[in-house]
């Protein structure tokens, strides 16, 4: 099972305690993957389509728990194409039951007509913080996904309209995560790509087990990255030190050939001889070998002076 499936499986069992939270979550689910059918006799029926069993189970449970219409809900499993993809269809047949659901979800206008379903959900449904959490949870169950955190960090919810995506973004922002919107084909994607913010999203949706699993993976990844950065830094420093030492030895040998080390001042001659005898020693180690001992900056100053003298001789 993928990490995204694990999150949805956990969320399918997460139920808001209050009826208004359950209605908010159902509003997101129906808005994302539901449709209202009108018969020739002007009778309404409600259909919810999903390829995810956990989403179908959550819709069924919410309709039963919130409106007590389980006897009028059917779930069908059908083959969609040659690959054998599964589609779960939840059907509310009774006109009166559909009217109750639409009224609770604020999808009926004053004249009894159904509002455009690709529009944002009614703000009255998401006034409370708990209802906003439930709505975000329902939207993710219906049209969301999260990548395997071992490979990358990516959280997204696909919306059918720009207005719906902007509403979802507006609901997420007060909780902290910086959700962004990008268009992909005919969908508007609300996405988050930072690991800590995806942790916050799981907390908002109350997927606490998945949150802990993600945190454990993040800790391991961050430790591995920290070790890699330290190793790379040390390797770069070693390479830099070795290159500098090789250049210093070359300059000193050039001075030795051209004018001899005896012509140098005592302090420069001493450090030059030590560098030739200890090509792998650090600046600190070279300074400790001198009498009296000299610090790293003093050793570095003398070696730089030797290099400048060698360069001047080469130019002349």
Short description:
Helix content is 56%, strand content 14%. With 316 residues, it is an alpha+beta fold.
Provide structural commentary.
This protein folds into two domains: 3-206, Endonuclease I-creI; 236-315, no CATH class. It is built from eleven helices and eight strands. It has helices at residues 3-12, 19-33, 53-67, 95-104, 129-143, 162-172, 195-204, 208-258, 266-277, 283-289, 296-315, and strands spanning 34-38, 44-50, 73-79, 86-92, 144-146, 155-159, 180-184, 187-192. Helix 2 (19-33) runs parallel beside helix 5 and helix 8 (208-258) packs across helix 9 (266-277). The mean pLDDT is 86.
Helix content: 55-70%
Provide mean pLDDT, rounded.
86
The sequence of SSEs as H and E is HHEEHEEHHEEHEEHHHHH
Count of helices? 11
Rg over CA atoms, rounded to whole Å, is 35 Å
Could you say which structural class the secondary elements and strand pairing correspond to?
alpha+beta
Distance between the termini: 74 Å
Describe the global form: rod-shaped
CATH topology group of the largest domain: Endonuclease I-creI
* CATH architecture annotation of the largest domain: Roll
Broad CATH class of the largest domain: Alpha Beta
Q: What percent strand? A: 5-15%
User: Largest sheet, if any?
Assistant: 4 strands, antiparallel
Total strand count, please?
8
The CATH superfamily of the largest domain is: Homing endonucleases
């Amino acid at each position: 099972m993928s990490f995204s499936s694990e999150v949805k499986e956990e969320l399918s069992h997460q139920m808001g305690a209050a009826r208004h939270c359950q209605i908010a979550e159902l509003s997101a689910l129906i808005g994302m993957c539901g449709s209202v059918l009108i018969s020739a006799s002007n009778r309404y029926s409600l259909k919810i389509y999903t390829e995810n069993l956990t989403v179908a189970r959550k819709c069924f449970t919410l309709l039963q728990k919130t409106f007590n219409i389980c006897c009028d809900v059917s779930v069908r499993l059908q083959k969609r194409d040659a690959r054998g993809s599964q589609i779960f269809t939840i059907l509310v047949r009774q006109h009166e039951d559909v009217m109750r659901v639409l009224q609770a979800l604020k999808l009926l206008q004053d004249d009894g007509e159904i509002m455009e379903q690709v529009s944002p959900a009614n703000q009255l449904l998401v006034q409370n913080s708990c209802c906003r959490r439930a709505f975000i949870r329902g939207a993710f169950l219906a049209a969301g996904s999260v990548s395997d955190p071992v490979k990358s960090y990516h959280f997204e919810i696909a919306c059918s309209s720009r207005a719906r995506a902007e509403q979802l973004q507006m609901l997420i922002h007060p909780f902290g995560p910086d959700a962004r919107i990008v268009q992909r084909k005919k969908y508007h994607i609300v996405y988050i790509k930072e690991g800590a913010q995806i942790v916050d999203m799981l907390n908002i949706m109350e997927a606490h087990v998945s949150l802990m699993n993600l945190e454990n993976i993040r800790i391991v990844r961050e430790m591995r990255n920290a070790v890699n950065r330290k190793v790379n830094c040390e390797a770069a420093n070693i390479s830099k030190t070795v290159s500098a030492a090789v250049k210093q030895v070359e300059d000193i040998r050039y001075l030795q050939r051209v004018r001899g080390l005896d012509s140098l001042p005592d302090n420069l001659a001493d450090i030059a001889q030590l560098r030739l005898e200890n090509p792998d020693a650090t600046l600190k180690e070279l300074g400790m070998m001198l009498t009296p001992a000299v610090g790293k900056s003093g050793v570095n100053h003398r070696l730089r002076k030797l290099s400048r003298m060698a360069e001047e001789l080469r130019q002349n």
